[in-house]
Amino acid sequence: MAYTGFDISNQVILITGGTSGIGREIALGCAAAGAKVVAGSTNPDKVAAIRKELGGDCDGVQIDVSDAKSVQAAVDHTAKKYGRIDGMVNAAGVIKKVASIDMDPADFERVIKVNLVGNFIVCQAVARVMKDQPANEKGLRGAMVNIASLSSFVSLTEVLAYACSKSGVMGLTRGLANEWAALGIRVNGVAPGVFPTDLNRPLVEGTPRGAWLKQHTPLGRFGSADELVGAAIYLLSPSASYTTGETIIVDGGFLAKGV
Question: Which domains does the chain have, with CATH numbers?
Answer without folding.
Answer: 12-247 (3.40.50.720)
